[in-house]
Design goal:
Chain A is α/β, with parallel strands linked by helices. Chain A is built from eleven helices and 25 strands. The chains are: A alpha/beta (425), B alpha+beta (146).
């Protein structure tokens, strides 16, 4: 009997590597509705922009599955899970027994109820197949509107602009990148995109996708009354966890599939990881869906360790982080970056308008809990250490961080001695 | 597996390890050409010396068992070699997204701005002992299993 993994994204890859760390023998079966072996999903924007070819989108070498004794069933949808019988049933009615099961089903793009959204000319941007569609489309059209100013929307817009399209972004919030950034950082990025010819409309939303009588998209009408002409619309408002399989199987769900520190769901022998999982957070004292790449890999990895081992390997907890560049402007944000006033946080910011750089550090209870960096990201990891390990800050150390001089020598000595350099045996 | 471990109690912050690293990773393998010419065209060492008052330490990739950089890598450029335990880097695959640089809590991944790719310690592929360890004048860097 095999380990079975539903989904073939990065959580799935993490799980394969986690399982194989412990159990090198038991076969693994991966069931994926996509038609390609695993790829670096964020690379679809690099591919669409023409920065890399298809030969570089693979996340692991071609021999990865064979070497790890993994069978992959592509183009296969799972219809049901029977947690009592420990089986899954595919849509082709194949019944597969599992030893342990991982749900790494990810999310699907959220499609808001906009008038005229049904029909041709409306796209998403979360899979390689979508990137192929948009690449093909960009040869035929001239104007596109992207709905959503989050990371996916912005990267879609940038890539489409690289293909020469006249591109506009419509974002309901007051700024782009509202989740990961603050106003200043969001504006710096928006400025860069506008310099490159992308139109950004914040604080409004698409009320209607306008079509000809034959149903072809000719533009959008915004809530502020403005009309934008376009031949296609890309909806990138966010992704919602693919919960149906779990829900139908009677596995506990909230916003995502509920898991504990060990990535176990409410059903024995069933685990969940990645964008579909609602897991304990490292900083917030609650469970959250943290749909970001590193989290998906590490949750998958720990799920894999726990699927294969009797000994529990708890995940350290979700930590939101995003590193992403826009037209060469690097940015990084990590941890808790937009605290409310009642949260008793101390916030330090430094904006250098001339050089287009911005640094924001968020402290709470004499610890660093988040940062945003725009333009200058070289010290990102050194800040991350303080957050990731929850290191206590003395006033001197805090001052050094504020001065922009983070260093491992600022760690409390015993932390440095145990974490950086374990003692000689 | 053997890793490079720094000892800040005896490190004098001489930066010789950086120079050795630079030369070992240079095309010319010549210290002068590496430091004068190749640095100008983007060659950088994989390690960095940090100072705080009288204390110094030379740090580079720890080759963690479960590395945050591999979790964060979107392109498959960073991966664990199951056999050697090393955290490997395939520069060809790197797209310069800087996710690993952000995720590594040890700050051990660096940015090569010229190439638009990252740099990190490869434990001197092809050498028995990494160049930095060999060059260190007072055993402030050791290469051993712990």
């Amino acid at each position: 009997m095999s380990y079975v993994i539903i989904g073939n994204g990065v959580a799935s890859v993490g799980a394969i590597e986690g399982i194989r760390k412990v159990d090198t023998k038991t076969p693994i079966l991966v069931v994926s509705e996509e038609d390609t072996p695993t790829y670096g999903r964020p690379l679809i924007s690099y591919f669409l922009a023409g920065k890399i070819g298809l030969d570089r989108v693979s996340l692991r070498p071609d021999e990865f599955y064979e070497k790890n004794n993994v069978e992959v069933k592509l183009n296969t949808r799972v219809a049901a899970i029977d947690k009592a019988a420990k089986t899954i049933t595919t849509e082709a009615d194949e019944v597969i027994e599992y030893k342990e099961l991982l749900l790494a089903t990810g999310g699907v793009p959220f499609m808001p109820p906009i008038k005229g959204i049904d029909g041709s000319g409306v796209y998403n941007f979360t899979t390689l197949a979508h990137a192929h569609e948009l690449l093909d489309l960009s040869k035929r059209i001239h104007r596109v509107v992207v709905v959503g100013g989050g990371l996916i929307g912005l990267k879609a817009a940038e890539a489409l602009r690289y293909n020469g399209l006249s591109t506009a972004i419509v974002e309901l919030g007051s700024r782009v990148l509202s989740a990961a950034f603050d106003d200043v950082a969001g504006n710096l990025v928006a400025q860069r995109l506008e310099e490159k010819g992308i139109t950004i409309c914040c604080g409004t939303t698409v009320e209607e996708i306008l079509r000809t009588e034959q149903g072809e998209v000719i533009g959008v009408r915004l809530a502020n009354g403005q009309k934008l002409a376009c031949e296609a619309v890309v909806v990138a408002i966010g992704v919602v966890p693919s919960l149906n399989l779990a829900k139908d199987a009677g596995i506990a769900v909230n916003r995502g599939i509920k898991v504990d520190d060990n990535m176990c769901t409410s059903a024995e022998g069933v685990y969940a990881a990645g964008d579909v999982a609602e897991a304990p957070d490292m900083i917030a004292e609650e469970a959250r869906v943290t749909p970001i790449w590193p989290n998906a890999f590490s949750q998958g990895y720990h799920a894999g360790l726990n699927m294969a081992s009797e000994e529990a390997s708890p995940h350290p907890g979700g930590l939101p982080m995003n590193a992403i560049s826009f037209y060469g402007l690097p940015t990084a944000s990590l941890g808790h970056v937009n605290p409310n006033e009642d949260e008793d946080c101390e916030v330090f910011t430094e904006l250098d308008e001339e050089n287009g750089t911005y640094r924001k550090l968020i402290f709470r209870n004499e610890k660093l809990i988040g940062y945003v960096l725009v333009g200058e990201v070289d010290f990102a990891g050194l800040y991350t250490g303080f957050i990731r390990f929850g290191l206590d800050l003395t006033p001197d150390v805090k001052e050094e961080l504020i001065a922009g001089q983070p260093s491992a020598l600022l760690w409390p000595e015993e932390e440095f001695d145990t974490k950086w350099t374990p003692a000689a045996e | 597996m053997r890793r490079v471990y720094p000892n800040k109690d005896v490190c004098i912050g001489c930066h010789i390890c950086e120079v050795a690293c630079l030369t070992a990773h240079s095309a010319s393998q010549d210290v002068v050409i590496a430091a004068k010419e190749e640095v100008a065209s983007g060659l950088q060492p994989c390690k960095a010396v940090y100072d705080k008052g009288q204390i110094s330490v030379a740090l580079s990739c720890r080759h963690c068992d479960n590395p945050s950089c591999v979790s964060a890598c979107i392109s498959g450029a960073l991966y664990k070699d199951q056999e050697t335990g090393r955290t490997c880097y395939n520069e060809e695959q790197c797209v310069g997204c800087w996710s690993c640089l952000m995720a590594c809590p040890y700050g051990a991944v660096r940015r090569n701005v010229t190439k638009g790719k990252i740099i990190k310690c490869d434990l001197c592929e092809g050498r028995d002992i990494p160049a930095c360890v060999e060059a260190c004048p007072n055993n402030a860097l050791v290469y051993e299993s712990r």
